[in-house]
Structure formats: C-alpha cells, structure tokens
C-alpha cells in the first residue's frame, strides 16, 4: 500500500519532514503541500517537485488526493488542523505540541478516540532516536535499578537566537517550556513511567532582555517531583555558543546513564594548535536526522498494519499540561501542583 501524503507547513522543520518523506521513507508519496506563505509553496513546487499546492488547509485536506497529512503548522493551529483531518478521514502525523490549550486538546483527544480506524501520531522524535531507545532498554531491564533522578539539557545554538527574536515579536511560541522543554518532559514520563506531580521553574534573559515583555526566555530551568518522589531537573535554552546541546542523565540505585554527554557531531577528534577538539552538532535536523526518518517510517507502518503508534494523544496532553504548569510557575514565581487528567 502506497500512502499518499500532504504536508501543511514548510518552515525549517516542515522542510526536514518533506525531504525525508521524499527520499528516505518507503511506501509513501508526498504529493501535496499547503502553506499561507507563497515562498514556501514556491519551494514545494520548484525544489521538492510537489505536484499539488494549496494556500488553504481545508482545500487540501478535503481533497481525494491524499490519505494522510503531516501537520507542521504553528502550534496554536494544531488542534484545529487535526480535527479537520479526522473530519475528512485522513490519517494524521502532528508535530509537538498537540496544542496550547488544555480544553481544546481534550476535545481533540475525544475526536481522535472516536476515529480508531485512523492513525494519529505525535512527533516526539527522541523516542525513535537509537541512543535513547538503547538507554530505555537498559532502564526497562532494571540494569540501573530504580530511577532516583533525571537531568535533561535541551539548548538551541546561539546562531538561531536572532531569528527567534524576530519570530517572537509577531508570534507567541507558547513559551520556552512548551516550545522546547516539552521533549524532555516527554522523556521524563517515558523513562520513568510515572507522572510529574509538581514543578518549580525559573528563567533569565541575558542577551535579549526585551524577551521579558514577550513572555519568552533565553534560558529556563525546572525542578520537578514525580508521583513516586523521583526528581527531575530540566534546563532549556536558546543560547548554546558551541552548537545544538541535547544531553540526558539518568541516575538509578544501581548505576547511571548519560546520553550525549557532549554534543558530538561525529566520531572525529581534531588535534591542532588550539588543543583537542570534538566538533559539535549545530542543528536539530543534524542530531536527530535518523530519529525523524524512523518516526515517519513508523507512521507509515502503522497505517499499513492498522495499528496505533507508541506515542498517543494522552502523551501530548500530559506533556502540554506539565509545560503550561512550568510557564505558570516561572511567571508566578511559585511551586505549581499538577492535577492528572
């Protein structure tokens, strides 16, 4: 079965997904693209050689051209776009987060649950990264004992900060915790199998203090307590001078695991007049290239095999609830208790 796909949104992440679908994901055809930005549609036609382009999402989604859609639109539109896709009988892959409003997400979750014949998958790509999956298998086998603490770093390179500033002046990302830390929030839930019960978040804007007025952060940190008293520490940011820094540490009663202790680009070590140098990854699409491809392949396999993916709408809901609680904690400077949903 060849799955015909339309993609909505061709920004930097949308282009990564589109190019993966065209070159690295078997049994599918990317034949349609939608964007409200003409330059993105031109890119789809001229560079990606996509046959059908649309400036209106509903026009693409209600057509008989496609079987499934990749939703890579701004976060605030995700629920609306998911709902329309299910209305017209399309399978859905949606980038994180599932939405920005808890009530809206719950309504969307009900729609997903009432259409079990359609596949819904959320883009928590780190679950499909080879290193994280290997670490998860070690944890699941009990090799490090009971988890006592997790420490997660997720920091974008400084090179992208100015473009984010320009974006933030006209759009709200949802805040650092929902825009970036949500991946680490998902990892905490995934590795432990437990829910986060309370959070305390802090943050600082150093290079661009004007972000204060935009409710955005350069650097934020969260201390978390899980429902079994496990501790989690998350640091998220947009200002890593050396490159794209993603690191996770899991401490247990019998040992510990570190995933990407340094953000190595590859296995090359350079020795010269400047010392011993290990090149760093510079972009999310470089560090998680294979994970993005594997999650797309899994989405196609789920459609073909008529089964549900590992990542659920409930995972998206819970991660959003926690991320919003982090934002509330930061803005209110107080500890926030989280109610399970």
TrEMBL record:
GO molecular function annotation: inositol 2-dehydrogenase (NAD+) activity; nucleotide binding
Statement: the UniProt record of this protein carries the keyword RNA-binding: no
Domain Gfo/Idh/MocA-like oxidoreductase N-terminal intervals: 3-120
Domain GFO/IDH/MocA-like oxidoreductase: 132-258
EC number(s) on file: 1.1.1.18
Gene Ontology annotations for the cellular component aspect, listed alphabetically: cytoplasm
UniProt keyword 4Fe-4S, yes or no: no
GO biological process: NADPH regeneration
InterPro entries recorded: Gfo/Idh/MocA-like_OxRdtase_N, GFO_IDH_MocA-like_dom, Myo_inos_IolG, NAD(P)-bd_dom_sf
Gene3D superfamilies linked: Dihydrodipicolinate Reductase, domain 2, NAD(P)-binding Rossmann-like Domain
Keywords: Oxidoreductase
Domain of life: Bacteria
Similarity remark: Belongs to the Gfo/Idh/MocA family.
PANTHER family cross-referenced by the UniProt entry: BINDING ROSSMANN FOLD OXIDOREDUCTASE, PUTATIVE (AFU_ORTHOLOGUE AFUA_2G10240)-RELATED, NAD(P)-BINDING ROSSMANN-FOLD SUPERFAMILY PROTEIN-RELATED
NCBIfam families attached to this UniProt entry: myo_inos_iolG
Protein name per Swiss-Prot or TrEMBL: Inositol 2-dehydrogenase
Organism: Entomospira nematocerorum
Lineage: Bacteria, Pseudomonadati, Spirochaetota, Spirochaetia, Spirochaetales
